[in-house]
Structures are given as structure tokens and as C-alpha cells.
Amino acid sequence: MVVIRFLAVFFIMIALMLMGADVVSTLEMPGGLVVRSLARILLLVQVDAKTLVQQNFPPSMAGVSLTLLDSPATVVFGTIGIVFALLGLTGRREERPSSKSPPIHR
Q1: d(Cα 61, Cα 23) in Å, to the nearest integer?
Q2: What values do phi and psi take at 44, rounded to 5?
Q3: Is 36 within 8 Å of 20 (Cβ atoms)?
Q4: pLDDT of residue 96 exceeding 70
Q5: CA pair distance 14, 41, nearest whole angstrom
Q6: Looking at residue 35, what is its pLDDT?
Q7: Of 32, 37, 63, 77, which residue is least crowded by CB atoms under 10 Å?
Q8: C-alpha to C-alpha distance for 43 and 64, rounded to whole angstroms
Q9: Is the pTM of this model over 0.85?
């Protein structure tokens, strides 16, 4: 359960950092909104995901995968983080004994 919660925080932090980078790029670019896609972020680490998907996936899966790659990276990572956060909440909580002392009868 701790691992799922850690992954949730990790992916949400990545999404917030990417959103901040998009905001800074938008402020630097006069007159334009900058939103980086997941494919563009992967190109920064030398991974051409679009080409890999087109060459290795069947056409029905390639269409869905390319749509995901063209989505804003902030949305993709944020969605993954929220899903992990919701999965982390579904854990069974143990009842803790109450820390209240019993009442004193006088």
C-alpha cells in the first residue's frame, strides 16, 4: 500500500513539474500557449515513441497509443497519479484503540 501511495505522489509531482514547465514556456513565448505532448517529452530523453508504436503495434492499438502520445504530458501523468492515489485509498484500515482514558467516576 505504501508503494502505491508513493507512486501516486511521484506521478502527481511529475505532472505538476511538467505543468510548471509549460507555464514558464508560455510566459516566455509571446502570444502562444505551450502545452507539451507526451511524445515531445519522450523525445527529450531520445525516445521516438511515435515511430516505435507505428512499427511494433497492430493498427488498432497503434491508433489508441498515438492518441495517448499526442495528449498533454501533464494530463497523462496526472491521471496516472490520481488513479494510484485512489487505489491507495481503498486499503483496509485497522481500527486503532482510542487514546481517550476512561471517565473517572466520583
Answers
A1: 32
A2: -65, -25
A3: no
A4: no
A5: 12
A6: 93
A7: 32
A8: 19
A9: no
Specify the residue for cell string 483496509: 92
Question: Please, what sign has the CA dihedral across residues 17, 23, 24, 26?
Answer: positive
What pLDDT, on a 0 to 100 scale, did the predictor assign at position 100? 76
State the DSSP string of the chain: -HHHHHHHHHHHHHHHHHHHHHHHHHHHSTT-----BHHHHHHHTT--HHHHHHHHS-HHHHHHHHHHHHSBHHHHHHHHHHHHHHHHHTSPPPPPPP-PPPPPP-
Angstrom distance (rounded) from CA 44 to CA 41: 5
Q: Are 72 and 35 in contact (CB under 8 A)?
A: yes
Q: Which three cell numbers stand for residue 50?
A: 511515435
| Contact indicator for 12, 78 with CB cutoff of 8 Å | yes
> For residue 37, how many C-alpha atoms fall within 13 Å in the half-sphere facing its CB?
13
Angle value at C-alpha 40, between 39 and 42, nearest 5 degrees: 65
Identify the residue with better confidence: 17 or 92.
Answer: 17
